[in-house]
Amino acid sequence: MPIVEDMTTNPGACAPAAARVAVVTGGSRGIGRAVSLKLARDGLAVVVNYAGDTAAAEETVKAITEAGGRAVSVRADVADEHAVAALFDRAEAEFGGVDVVVNAAGRLALSPIADLDLAVLDALHRTNVRGAFVVAQQAARRLRAGGSFVGFSTSVVGTQLPAYGAYTASKGAVEALTLTLARELRGRDVTVNTVAPGPTATDLFLTGKTPEQIDALAKAPALERLGTPEDIARVVAFLAGPEGRWVNGQTLRANGGLV
Ligand SMILES: NC(=O)c1ccc[n+]([C@@H]2O[C@H](COP(=O)([O-])OP(=O)(O)OC[C@H]3O[C@@H](n4cnc5c(N)ncnc54)[C@H](OP(=O)(O)O)[C@@H]3O)[C@@H](O)[C@H]2O)c1
Asked: Mean pLDDT throughout 56-66?
C-alpha cells in the first residue's frame, strides 16, 4: 500500500514536524562536526558551516541525512560579516528560522610571545575574536524565542600554558562577551553560554604535537584521557536544549578535571 496521505482531508498529515534549527560554525570537522551530528540526532535541522574543506562539510551533511536528519552545508568565513549574514539567510530560507547558534569555528597558533609573528596573531584573532563577534551579532539579531547561543573558549584560559598566549587572549575575549550578550538579550528568552574544552582529540589539538606531548596532555585531566568531540558535543547539546535552560551567561569548563 503506497504511503501517501490525503492532503485534502488531513492537511497537516504531510507537513514535517516543526523542527528547531541550528547553525553550527566550524560544523564540518572536529568538535563542530560532533555537535552537528548530536544536534541532528536530537531532532534539529542543521546548517553546517565551514571555511574551505568542502569535502569534509559534505561528509558531515551526508552522515546526518543518511541517518534521517536534515542538514545543508554553507561555506562562510566567520570573520566576514556579509558571508555570515548570507549563512543565516540560508538557514532561514532552508529551514524557516534559527533556534540554536554554535560558534565552534576556531584556530590555534602556538608561539612564545617573544617570538610571535604578528601576522599570525592578526589571522588568529580575525577568526577567533572578530569571527566570534560577527557570529554573535547575527545570532543576537535572529535567534527565535527559546533559542540558545553557545560559543567556544578553551580551558587553557585557566591553565595558562606557555606558547598559548595569542590563543588564550583570543578566547578570553569570547568569555568576556558571554555574560554581556546574555544581558543584552534580556527579554528575548535566549540563553548565551560558552564551553571551554580541555585537550580534545581533533586535528586542531593533535597537529604539530609529538606523541610524548599528546600523552602528557592526555594524562593531565583527573580522568586521565583526552576529551572526545562527542564529550563536548553532549555538553553543547545540554546548553542548547531544554535541560540546560537555567544556565545563562556562563563559561563551562568541560575537561575531565583539569586544573
Ligand atoms: N580540540 C581541542 O583540544 C580544543 C580545546 C579547547 C577549545 N577548542 C575550540 O573548539 C573549537 C573547535 O575546535 P576543533 O578542535 O574542532 O578544530 P578543528 O578540528 O581544527 O576544526 C575547525 C573547524 O572550524 C572551521 N573553521 C576554521 N576557521 C574558520 C573560519 N574562519 N570560518 C568558518 N569556519 C572555520 C574549519 O573548517 P575548514 O575545515 O573548512 O577550514 C573546521 O570545520 C575551536 O573554537 C577551538 O578553539 C578546541
From this structure: 98
Question: Is the beta carbon of 167 within 6 A of some atom in ligand 1?
Answer: no
Mind listing the pLDDT tens digit for each residue in 80-117? 999 999 999 999 999 999 999 999 999 999 999 999 99
SS3 38: helix
Confidence of residue 131 (pLDDT cuts 50, 70, 90): very high
The answer to whether residues 201 and 227 touch, using CB atoms and an 8 Å cutoff, is yes
For this structure, is 167 an active site residue?
yes
Instruction: Please indicate whether residue 135, judged by its CB atom, sits closer than 6 Å to ligand 1.
Output: no
pTM: 0.94
What is the rounded CA–CA span in Å between residue 141 and residue 138? 5
Give me the catalytic one of 167, 178, 198, 233: 167
Q: Is the shortest distance between the CB of 56 and ligand 1 below 6 Å? A: yes
Ligand 1 touching residue 105 (CB < 6 A): yes
Query: Which of ligand 1's atoms lies nearest the C-alpha of 152?
Result: 45
Query: Of 8-12, 40-44, 112-116, 157-161, which gets the smallest average pLDDT?
Result: 8-12
Query: Which atom belonging to ligand 1 lies closest to the Cα atom of 31?
Result: 16
Task: Tell which residue, 92, 171, 77, 93, has the closest CA to residue 125.
Answer: 171
> What is the enclosing helix (H) or strand (E) of 86?
helix 81-95
**How would residue 23 be classed by pLDDT, with cut points 50, 70 and 90?**
very high
Assigned C-alpha cell, 41? 540526532
CB-count burial class (<10 Å; 0-12, 13-18, 19+) for 86: middle
Q: Do 201 and 111 contact (CB within 8 A), yes or no?
A: no
